[in-house]
Amino acid sequence: MVRLVEDFIRRWNRLSLALQFLVAGGVGLLAVMLVVGLWVTSQIRQGVIRNSAATTALYVDSVIAPLLPDMRKSRELSDSVKQALDETLDQGALGKRLASFKLWRRDGTVLYAKDKTLIGKVFEPNANLDHAFNGNVVAEFNKLDDAESRREKGIGVPLLEIYNPVREPWSGDVVAVSEFYEVAEDFQLTLNAALWSSWLVVAGATAAALALLSGIVFRGSRTIETQRTALEAKVAELQALLSQNSTLRQRVQRASRRATAINERYLRRIGADLHDGPAQLVALAALRMDSPLLLDPDASAEQRQAEVAGIHKTLSEAMREIRGICNGLVLPQIETAAVADILRLAVAEHERRTASSVSLALPTQLPELGASEKISIYRFVQEGLNNAWRHGQGKDQAVKAGTKAGKLFVTVSDGGPGFDPARSEGLGLAGLRERIESIGGRFETASGPKGTRLMITLSVEEQP
Predict the structure, then answer these.
(1) Whole-number Cα distances in Å, 263 to 424, 430, 434
(2) 1-9 — which CB contacts under 8 Å span 24+ positions?
(3) Model-level pTM?
(4) Nearest to 368 by CA among 405, 342, 330, 348
(5) Which of 203, 277, 426, 436 has its CA 20 to 30 A from that of 364?
(6) Residue 122 per-residue DSSP state
(7) What per-residue confidence (pLDDT) applies to 463?
(8) First-to-final CA distance of the chain
(9) 233-245 pLDDT, tens digit each
(10) Which residues is 411 bridged to in the sheet?
């Protein structure tokens, strides 16, 4: 039993709120309809019976009352009165309407009846008879359960039993009660029609109320379901964003740690470049400043000039190398420039520095990016073209940019011999990877015998 209850509760909870209301509300309104319908039909039945009985009683009383003697003085009816009653009750419209007639005395004696065998008999007064002697018209429809009503039971047609008080004309006191049974076939049809009409009205009102409330509840349920679906979608989207943010945070942390190490390597490389290049040339020039040719007064002017020219040349080479290192470190003013202009600037600088040619392919319009993204793009193109010049002999150098599915991509390629990215990703490429990934971008390397291609992808959906 407990399992059945639990199974029912589980299945009930699976239903939507609208279906739960429809079932529970339907059962509740059906119960209310039955209660209200029974009460209304009971009231209608009593009212119809009471009104019909009053009308019939008034008619019968108007016909019978003039035939009766003074009931206070007469304990029995004379033969002439009985004959007059027989003639009146057996003839005309009244005879067709009345299936039976009795005249009662207060003590339960039958003074007159169509069934002659009942005249003079005494019965225990029933409740209806007592009510009638109290001055009330009492009526019952098709209830023939009294001892004196055996004859009426055998008639086989619906009967309206009416107890009508017979009053004394001058005092108004009830001196007798007439009990008669009216043939009620037409009355039954009228009563049934009234009862059916009342049931239809109650059922219609209940159905209309259920339909109206169900419509409101179903609309509210659809609204709740739509909002719940939207909320679940938002929660799922938020969870995805939280997961993505966590992944990006971890990537940024890793990129930050690697960037710190790479910066140290950059500083060591810059120090090495300065030490092995300009510093050596300056040291050479300093040594040549102590050359005997400059200090020997016997040296010729041509020798001194040649030595000075050599020192000047050495210092010029040192300055040139220092400028080259500075040009690689110092950025041009690109914060306010468009992305397309930055790409053209990086390509032009490379062509000027290396005296080589680069193929540049740009769409008609590129999205605007922030300063960090612009710097990253410039450094990417600069380092990619430097690698193409040094390792790919400057063959088939190309830069291409475009947008796809809310993403900006930039590629740098060459037709050199290529390299193995898994083994020989140098300091420059590693630094670019960390720079691009730190701003949420993606860095890809592809290399083979037919050349090398570097590509970065940046999201532009949330960029200003």
Answers:
(1) 19, 11, 11
(2) none
(3) 0.40
(4) 342
(5) 436
(6) B
(7) 46
(8) 66
(9) 999 999 999 998 8
(10) 400, 455
CATH for the 334-464 domain, from 3.30.565.10, 3.40.50.700, 3.10.20.30, 3.40.50.1970: 3.30.565.10
Amino acid identity at 186:
D
Q: Parallel, antiparallel, or unpaired for β 98-104 and 110-113? A: antiparallel
Q: Within 134-184, where are the H helices?
A: 150-153
Which DSSP letter does residue 107 get?
A: T
CA–CA distances in Å: residue 369 to residues 124, 249, 251, 343, 457: 111, 21, 21, 13, 13
Do 102 and 179 form a contact (C-beta atoms < 8 A)?
yes
**3-class secondary-structure state, position 169:** coil
Residue 440 CA to residue 428 CA, distance in Å, equals 19
3-state secondary structure of 206: helix
- Looking at 65-161, list the stretches that DSSP marks H as alpha helix, in order from N- to C-terminal side: 79-90, 92-97, 127-133, 150-153
Tell me how far apart the alpha carbons of residues 148 and 146 are, in angstroms, rounded to a whole number: 5
Q: Which are the contacts of 54, defined by CB distance < 8 A and separation ≥ 6?
A: 137
Is residue 188 within 8 Å of residue 158, measured between CB atoms?
yes
As beta bridge partners, residue 400 has: 361, 411
CA distance 286 to 263: 32
- Name the one residue in this structure whose structure tokens are 């008669």: 180
Q: What is the pLDDT of residue 387?
A: 85
